[in-house]
Write a structure and sequence with these properties.
19 helices, binds flavin-adenine dinucleotide
Length: about 675
Amino acid sequence: MSEQLTRRSFLKGVAGVVGVAAVNSIAGCAAKETPATSAAAESTTAAETTTAAAASPAGTYIPGTYTGTADGIHSTITVTMTFDEEKVTDVVLDVSGETPGYGQDAGDALREALLAAQSTQIDAVSGSTITSQAVIVAADKCFAQARGEAVVEVITVDKGSEEDWLGTEPNIDEASVSETWDTDILIVGAGNGGMCAAAYGAQKGLKFRIIEQNPVVQDTRHWYGAIDSSESKKAGVTVNRKKLLAEISRYASGKCDQKVVNTWINESAAMHDFVAGILESDPYNYTCVFTAGEEARWPQSDDSPDYMFPEQEHTYHGSEIPRNEVFQQYIEGLGYSVDFNTSLVKLEKNTEGRVTGIIAQKSSGEFVRINAAKGVLLACGGYPGNPYMMEALDPLGTSVTTACSFSPSDQGMGIRAAMWAGASLDKEAAPMLFDRGLVAPGVDGGYVESPASFGGKAFPGTVKQYNPGTQPFLKVNRKGLRFTNESSPYNDTSYAAGNQPGRVYAQIHDANYMEDIKRFHTIGCSAMARNVPGMMEGQIAQYVKEGLIFEADTLEELADKLGFDSDAKANFLATVERYNELYDKQSDDDFGKMAPRLSAIRQAPFYGCWLGASLLTTEQGIAINENTQALDEDRNPIEGLYVTGDMSGSFFANNYPCLMPGVACGRTLTFAIKAMKQMGGLE
Ligand SMILES: Cc1cc2nc3c(=O)[nH]c(=O)nc-3n(C[C@H](O)[C@H](O)[C@H](O)COP(=O)(O)OP(=O)(O)OC[C@H]3O[C@@H](n4cnc5c(N)ncnc54)[C@H](O)[C@@H]3O)c2cc1C
């Protein structure tokens, strides 16, 4: 079932985490006396197998059988390769600990690909990108041994610990820094912020380099918010900027820096012009799709104000190539490139406290000093993939989360490095939580043990996001009782469930769900349930099959399938009856939900499922000023250090304002450009 991927489609699914950085030393570099050729040697790990014996002068390889290992998604993957003097003659992969149906099934295709390519220049297998990446890393180690080169175990970073998520700045031995690169501007992270910064720098002819820990650019986040852009002018829509600033500040309970928010409000139109200027031109010719006005309006009713969120969102139709890859092509066309497989280890400062560059580590294990005369822009994403940081910095968000839709590569490394260099972290968490974490009955919110995952923990859900979870259908707790007004921003029901047993809840609707969804008229990406034909039906059918959504001819049967015990079942049936009464009355006398968002539950078949939150990312970051400079604990800018994206702070607190969609990516792109202008002396 494996599908060979182009680089572009690999990009769509990539989440692979290549080994990062080292603490204090490179793991064991002792030379082996002879290359491994015996069965016993096949079990030798790459960490143990370091320097092979001198290469055979006669051929390309030292004949023998070599083994390499790397961390996959659930297990340590072992690749064993046999070489004669000129070629690879056999490949054996052990991916048995990977996900059944995905990573486990990818083994055959990856084995064939390695044999056919006679190198590790192979495509990942669709749906198994982390497993594929681990196989590539492990196979690289086999090749290195066969060529008689040193194999250095790279994954030696101090990733912090449960007791101390920050850890300590690594002390890199000068002797192990094998190269020095000099540039004006260094961008760290080829994600949404980093690639936009690179494209802008390339257009302006700035001297910069961009490094990325993974072998490809990060997934593109397509919808971005920009205020009073050329698109909004075309549509004749303007935003009340004072109201928008007030709304963002209200969401953050005043814990944002309004000057920083104003940078996005006032400079995002120019950001849009820059992005559109590339995407809408040859050879891409995208068309911008603008969302605002009526789309941001809540349905009108007697008992609710006709409230409009100050939303102005932009995305593009008409091209298959994601924006980050377009930017990659764009910079390559102008003579720049991304240095992949290169990870930030630590920042370097001079005696005046100015950041002068970084120490990075390549996936081959070598350390590189990168001097950046005009500054370093960190764009390394948030910390959703780091359970130590999640539990310490956001215990509430962690406790209500059941599913992961984040990039596992975003493990807070940039935040930790900036803090080691004296930068200040926002004091309050701000997770991006969507109420879409579909789980089986009986599963609680929060981490479960997962020995092969980073930190030994993972969220229990297998579905990244069940988008219709955001629809304001009836929601009940494990006691069968309604507990909240279900018509809310995406994360409110998840937080309300934080006070309920197990921190999860069941969503209930009947066969008329599509009529209900049209009337609900939710906004943001939850509108996909209304706008994408067949999406609801398709997802229900799929998850009924997987035992995550339950279909029943009667409400009694549904209660049993959802796992309600006898008291809870009685409550559940009474709750549905009451909810139907409220619908008939067109007035939610219990929780005040607006009338158009009530629904009847009378028409079989009935449907139910259990939900918690799905974690997309974190927005608690390094405090910045309006020029995107990192701030120290005294609120003074750290010269030479700029931060954008999810690892930048001063904008959100408590939570992410989901009903102003696109703000996250919009500010990421805007601050990326702002930082390049600042470092490049363009303002
Ligand atoms: C599924 C999903 C959908 C989303 N959709 C939207 C949307 O439509 N609109 C919106 O506004 N927001 C959206 N977001 C949020 C959005 O992704 C972020 O707010 C933001 O755009 C991320 O940009 P970034 O550059 O900070 O991080 P990323 O784009 O995540 O990039 C970080 C990069 O840094 C690299 N990196 C990390 N550590 C190191 C290191 N030590 N050395 C080198 N490189 C490193 C990573 O590998 C990665 O490539 C979405 C998030 C998710 C998960």
